[in-house]
Design goal:
Layout lengths: L2 H6 L4 E3 L1 H7 L6 E6 L9 H13 L3 E6 L1 H6 L7 H17 L7 E5 L7 H12 L3 H6 L16 H15 L4 E5 L3 H13 L6 E5 L13 H4 L16 H9 L12 H14 L4 E3 L9 E3 L2 H9 L4 H25 L2 H8 L5
Helix pairs in contact: 5-14, 6-8, 8-9, 11-14, 12-14
């Protein structure tokens, strides 16, 4: 595959494709994604880790920012910066557990540069170049309502800091889920005003929570550790996965907003590498079905494949996906077990 094809697969939005086509041909282009260290990692991370592997394959100098001070502003883990930093170490383990080669990416904490005057100069320049109203509109990147800034001034700093992170790290590409769109667009608009080259913005979909129901706002229904019954933790045992998927929203013939189909599209099929996705059924119910592409599966589901048959197959493949993750933490338990013993994560 060409580099552009690799980077753009399973991507929901690119701003802009013309700029990206130039960036991928640079020698060692620079990309990043940012995460708040804030708790247990869930299955939706597979979308991000798979895309990070794509960036690595295409020769990117890729950085994972573990935004500890941003998590502090966002009141994560009780606003305890030391607990947040410890959670960052656990998250580093999670990347390795999900197959990201840590020797080919860089982990940076906001703490690494928070004392650099050049960073704060960027924060001030960004702040001077935008309005309070625009910053408030970007607060959904924190999962916050804009009115919360009226009670806590630091919440207004967050979007300006995230934009400044992108400029400080001198990135060609800012990557994230669709929930990070407002920050990336603010970075692009601000870059033009302060004469910095705007980053290409790449956004992948957000995995829908298992109990999404009929709600369609992706920011409201995304899989989240704050909704434990609606998310699959990477540490869930096989029985927990089975029970959660059994109860998941999966209406017959409905594709849009169907979390079980999304897991197939964005988690399972990228892992198959040409292997068939197999739905096992008794002969009296039509026998086994094999699919070599997600599109085939979707079409058959729309034609009447029973949701329970799909759920049974998805349970098998999700548990298979989690097996090497569990094995990694069996062999590298220290950070995870310490956070559990301290009550920092479940």
């Amino acid at each position: 595959m060409q580099k552009l094809d690799i980077i753009t697969k399973n991507v929901q939005e690119i701003i802009t494709i013309e700029e990206l086509s130039q960036v991928v041909n640079k020698e060692n282009p620079r990309g990043y994604i940012g995460f708040e260290p804030s708790g247990t990692v869930h299955l939706g991370w597979k979308i991000c880790t798979n895309k990070i592997k794509d960036f690595i394959q295409c020769g990117f100098d890729f950085t994972v920012l573990l935004a500890d001070w941003h998590a502090y502003i966002n009141d994560k883990l009780g606003g305890d910066i030391e607990k947040i930093k410890l959670c960052g170490k656990y998250m580093e383990d999670c990347f390795s557990a999900m197959g990201v080669d840590r020797s080919k990416i860089k982990f940076i904490y906001a703490s690494d540069y928070i004392s650099d005057p050049k960073y704060w100069e960027l924060v001030l320049r960004v702040s001077k170049s935008t309005s309070v109203a625009r910053v408030k509109r970007a607060m959904d990147i924190m999962g916050r309502d804009e009115n919360e800034a009226d009670k806590d001034l630091s919440k207004l700093f967050y979007p300006a800091m995230q934009v400044s992170d992108i400029f400080y790290l001198k990135l060609d590409v800012a990557y994230g889920g669709m929930d990070q769109r407002h920050a990336h667009m603010l970075a692009r608009d601000t870059a033009k005003k302060i004469e910095i080259k705007p980053p290409v913005a790449i956004h992948t979909p957000l995995l829908t929570g298992l109990q999404a129901g009929e709600r369609m706002n992706p920011l409201e229904v995304k899989m989240s550790k704050s909704k434990p019954d609606s998310m699959i933790s990477i540490h869930d045992d096989p029985d927990s996965v089975k029970n959660k998927i059994k109860k998941a929203y999966c209406p017959e013939k409905q594709v849009e907003g169907n979390p079980i189909l999304e897991i197939c599209k964005f988690v399972i099929f990228p892992e198959l590498s040409g292997e068939a996705f197999c739905i096992k059924r008794p002969e009296k119910f039509g026998g086994n079905l094999e699919f070599f592409s997600y599109e085939e599966l979707e079409n058959v589901f729309k034609s009447g494949l029973h949701p329970l048959d799909l759920k049974n197959a998805v349970t098998f493949y999700v548990n298979r996906t989690l097996e090497p993750i569990h094995e990694y933490f069996d062999n590298h338990p220290d950070n995870y077990e310490y956070l559990k013993s301290e009550g920092i994560i479940n």
